């Protein structure tokens, strides 16, 4: 047995082990969040700078104006439905890849869009959706009148689903890949028909991956502004657009910070609710 | 006709009804025949083992009885009904998987109750049976445990309980002990035998471990390359191997090439040997003589016995309970085993390196194997 560590030695050990992680979290998560929190409690000066007085006025403004509530409601709505579509597409896709003999190739195909800049990929959708674009070319070739696809909510949905699908498929694939398929046979063996066997033996094991994918998709989908900007035109304003506007042309950093904090609080609330419903294990699974 | 040469390992009254009948089963994977025209009958209440090296088709055969695979040819009859095309969830059999395949997201209780729940059994009846099953496997009080917190032996028993609680007509066991360490394996062998005897359920046990099969089975089918090499009562498989493969795979055997001179007399590199009265060879016929290492007798002075020859002790392998002698006689190597009794008594002999000894092969212990040496090495 080695003798008990002195307090100094213990401090040294702690710095070596958790030190770098703590430093990283402090620099890139904690401090920026605190800056935002402080900024959200300040006011806009005449030149757009942050000035006192401190107070909750930005939050009050946000929650008292039905316009902002509508924006956040719409963001959540579009984010949620995009995520639902992504899940419907991505869930079978992850299973397909996991059991395929060419899984490396298929995984590569899922990742390949990341090789191209995000903005360029969104612009590509403009080429597809615009009035003389690919899609309308196809439609008119069948003798139908061209559709007004840009700007539209539909275009925003399509591009969001396209952009965030890989973020859902990859963690789910990791969960599916670990599944021992003899459990499915065990379920058949014990009298479960195919759908029941899948639902009881396999599906519960994908729930953590499902939730992880949900978070990775839902959070950025709610906060996105580029897609809504380029494909939704002026028609679709999301919370991301609002925040961008406040930090940009409106030059109201205080209000922008407050909107950011509201968005973050709502995401954290969602996480907390999930952890509650999953009991103690919920948080473990999340991490 | 059932041979009556050997009595079973225990007094057993097997039902005359057939639990499982396989008729001409063939299964191909690509152009490879995993199972090649296999037919066999398994009786009610029997402990039946499918024994063979990996890749011999034993697991594929079991999977076709369970319903996970469908044979390309032939029929699977369970309890008198043709079940060849019946899906696994409608068959009156349950399986214990090699890796247990317990559901990791369920507690012990939920795992065991799964099959009963699928049958829509009332809740209190399920609870009662789960209790019964937990007592059966000697794990009462473990209801709420998660299976990933349990040891290999415990998980194996839970897998057993999960299958047995459904009261299957036939229990299929796919190498259920192979992942456990030796001591535990030996314990569970006895547990399995007792359980099977108590419940009277037909067990079909797949294993590559010949000792496991010998200890537990009523009958054994030795498989090789998709075919059954030999099927018979346990003792018959060991004492009267019909092929060189069986002689080498089950236990160990000395194989001596021989040519028949008379119906009961052969010539070998070690001299001329007389055989048992039951053997009847046509002169000129080429055969193999098989003799188990523990059935070879060694003497310091020339004994007055048939089939005696000189040999030199080339090596001695000490395994604790046994002394294994490697004998060299006319270039032929023979293995001989004697119990290490460590008794210093007259008449009890132990031998040393390089000692010249007399070897006697008792005619009744020499088993004649017709057909060539081909396949004599099961690990080739």
Automatic annotation (TrEMBL), chain A:
Membrane keyword on record: yes
Cell membrane keyword on record: yes
GO terms under biological process: transmembrane transport
Superkingdom of source: Bacteria
PROSITE patterns, alphabetized: ABC_TM1
Entry membrane topology: Multi-pass membrane protein
Family matches, as InterPro entries: MetI-like (IPR000515), MetI-like_sf (IPR035906)
Coiled-coil region: none
Pfam family, one: BPD_transp_1
CDD domains on file: TM_PBP2
Primary subcellular site in the record, as a coarse category: membrane
Record localization: Cell membrane
SUPFAM superfamilies listed in its UniProt record: MetI-like (SSF161098)
GO cellular component: plasma membrane
Spans through the membrane: 21-42, 76-98, 105-128, 154-176, 213-233, 253-275
Domain named ABC transmembrane type-1: residues: 72-274
Keywords for this protein: Cell membrane, Membrane, Transmembrane, Transmembrane helix, Transport
Protein family membership: Belongs to the binding-protein-dependent transport system permease family. CysTW subfamily.
Protein name: Spermidine/putrescine ABC transporter permease
Taxonomic source organism: Meiothermus hypogaeus NBRC 106114
Automatic annotation (TrEMBL), chain B:
Annotated EC: 7.6.2.11
NCBIfam families recorded: potA
Name of the protein described by the UniProt record: Spermidine/putrescine import ATP-binding protein PotA
Keyword terms of this UniProt record: ATP-binding, Cell membrane, Membrane, Nucleotide-binding, Translocase, Transport
Free-text function comment from the UniProt entry: Part of the ABC transporter complex PotABCD involved in spermidine/putrescine import. Responsible for energy coupling to the transport system.
InterPro entries (UniProt xref): AAA+_ATPase, ABC_SmlMolc_Importer, ABC_transporter-like_ATP-bd, ABC_transporter-like_CS, Mo/tungstate-bd_C_term_dom, P-loop_NTPase, PotA-like, PotA_ATP-bd
Catalytic activity: ATP + H2O + polyamine-[polyamine-binding protein]Side 1 = ADP + phosphate + polyamineSide 2 + [polyamine-binding protein]Side 1
MF annotations from Gene Ontology: ABC-type putrescine transporter activity; ATP binding; ATP hydrolysis activity
Keyword Translocase: yes
GO CC terms: ATP-binding cassette (ABC) transporter complex
Domain ABC transporter: 20-250
Gene this protein is translated from: potA
Family note: Belongs to the ABC transporter superfamily. Spermidine/putrescine importer (TC 3.A.1.11.1) family.
Highest taxon of source: Bacteria
Assembly, per entry: The complex is composed of two ATP-binding proteins (PotA), two transmembrane proteins (PotB and PotC) and a solute-binding protein (PotD).
SMART domains, per the entry: AAA
């Amino acid at each position: 047995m080695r003798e008990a560590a002195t307090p100094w030695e213990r401090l040294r050990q702690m710095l070596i082990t958790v030190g770098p992680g703590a430093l990283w979290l402090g620099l890139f998560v904690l401090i920026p969040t605190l800056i935002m929190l402080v900024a959200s409690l300040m006011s806009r000066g005449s030149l757009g700078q942050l000035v006192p007085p401190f107070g909750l006025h930005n939050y009050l403004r946000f929650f008292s104006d039905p316009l902002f509530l509508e924006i956040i409601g719409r963001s959540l709505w579009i984010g949620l439905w995009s995520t639902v579509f992504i899940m419907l597409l991505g869930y079978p896709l992850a299973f397909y890849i996991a059991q395929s003999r060419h899984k490396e190739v298929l995984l590569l195909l899922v990742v390949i869009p990341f090789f191209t800049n995000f903005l360029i990929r969104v612009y590509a959708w403009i080429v597809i959706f615009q009035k003389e674009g690919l899609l309308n070319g196809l439609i008119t070739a069948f003798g139908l009148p061209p559709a007004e696809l840009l700007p539209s909510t539909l275009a925003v949905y399509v591009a969001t689903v396209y952009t965030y699908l890989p973020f859902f498929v990859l963690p789910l694939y990791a969960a599916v890949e670990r599944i021992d398929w003899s459990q499915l046979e065990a379920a058949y063996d014990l009298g479960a028909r195919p759908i029941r066997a899948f639902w009881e033996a396999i599906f519960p094991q994908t729930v953590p991956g499902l939730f992880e994918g949900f978070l990775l998709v839902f959070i950025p989908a709610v906060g996105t502004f580029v897609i809504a900007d380029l494909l939704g035109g002026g028609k679709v304003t999301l919370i991301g657009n609002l925040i961008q506007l406040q930090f940009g042309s409106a030059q109201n950093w205080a209000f922008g910070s407050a909107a950011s904090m509201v968005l973050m609080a709502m995401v954290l609330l969602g996480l907390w609710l999930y952890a509650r419903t999953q009991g103690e294990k919920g948080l473990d699974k999340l991490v | 006709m059932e041979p009556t040469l050997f009595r079973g390992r225990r007094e057993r009254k097997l039902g005359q009804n057939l639990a499982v009948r396989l008729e001409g089963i063939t299964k191909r994977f690509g152009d490879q025949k995993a199972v090649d025209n296999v037919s066999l009958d398994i009786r009610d209440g029997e402990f039946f083992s499918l024994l063979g090296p990996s890749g011999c088709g034993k697991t594929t055969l079991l999977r076709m009885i369970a319903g996970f695979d469908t044979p390309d040819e032939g029929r699977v009859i369970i309890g008198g009904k043709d079940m060849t095309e019946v899906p696994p969830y409608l068959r009156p059999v349950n399986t214990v998987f090699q890796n247990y395949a317990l559901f990791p997201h369920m507690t012990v209780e939920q795992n065991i109750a799964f099959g009963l729940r699928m049958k829509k059994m009332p809740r209190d009846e399920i609870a009662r049976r789960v209790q019964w099953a937990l007592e059966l496997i000697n794990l009462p009080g473990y209801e709420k445990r998660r299976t990933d917190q349990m040891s290999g032996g415990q998980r194996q028993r839970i897998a057993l309980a999960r299958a047995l609680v459904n009261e299957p007509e036939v229990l299929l066991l796919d190498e259920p002990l192979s992942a456990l360490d030796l001591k535990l394996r030996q314990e569970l062998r006895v547990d399995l035998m007792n359980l099977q005897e108590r419940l009277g359920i037909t067990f079909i046990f797949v294993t590559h471990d010949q000792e496991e099969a010998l200890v537990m089975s009523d009958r054994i089918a030795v498989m090789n390359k998709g075919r059954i090499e030999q099927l018979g009562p346990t003792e018959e498989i060991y004492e009267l191997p019909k092929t060189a493969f069986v002689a080498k795979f089950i236990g160990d055997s000395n194989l001596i090439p021989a040519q028949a001179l008379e119906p009961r007399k052969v010539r070998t590199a070690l001299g001329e040997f007389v055989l048992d009265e039951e053997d009847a060879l046509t002169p000129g016929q080429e055969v193999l003589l098989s003799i188990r290492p523990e059935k070879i007798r060694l003497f310091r002075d020339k004994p007055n016995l048939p089939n005696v020859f000189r040999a030199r002790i080339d090596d001695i392998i000490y395994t604790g309970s046994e002394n294994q002698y490697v004998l060299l006689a006319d270039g032929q190597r023979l293995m001989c085993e004697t119990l290490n009794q460590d008794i210093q008594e007259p008449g009890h002999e132990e031998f040393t390196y390089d000692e010249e000894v007399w070897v006697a092969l008792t005619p009744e212990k020499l088993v004649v194997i017709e057909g060539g040496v081909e396949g004599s090495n099961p690990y080739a």
